[in-house]
User: What shape does this take?
Amino acid sequence: MTSFTKDILPKFRPEDIGCMRSMGVRFADPNWMTDPGGDADYPDYANARRVFAKLQDGSMPPDGAWSSEWLAAYEAWIADGFNP
Ligand code: HEM
Assistant: This one.
């Protein structure tokens, strides 16, 4: 069973965390990343899904997209139910 803290959080660099925290994107915070709340764009887990959308389209991080292995790990975390 994948967990955010063990399998996903270590993939975010200090510069990722620092740059995005100032924009309210708190992916170093397991509570923020596992918030089940939806919004206008996503029916549920809007924070985690918006982060994944930017990783998947390769627009983030700006200095180079995640590998397909890392994207697959994130997808497995989603499939396993967004465990903290
Ligand atoms: C794994 C790393 C990163 C992820 C997952 C990520 C994720 C995101 C997300 C989800 C947004 C949209 C925010 C919104 O719509 O409210 C965004 C926007 C943005 N991010 Fe990142 N980010 C990452 C790294 C970075 C880094 C390192 C920088 C700065 C050097 C950066 C600069 C920006 C900027 C300027 C925007 C606003 C413009 C845009 O939407 O393209 N990000 N990012």
User: Anything to note?
Assistant: Residues 4-79 form one domain. Residues 8 and 74 are 7 Å apart (CA to CA). The mean pLDDT is 97. The chain has five helices and no strands.
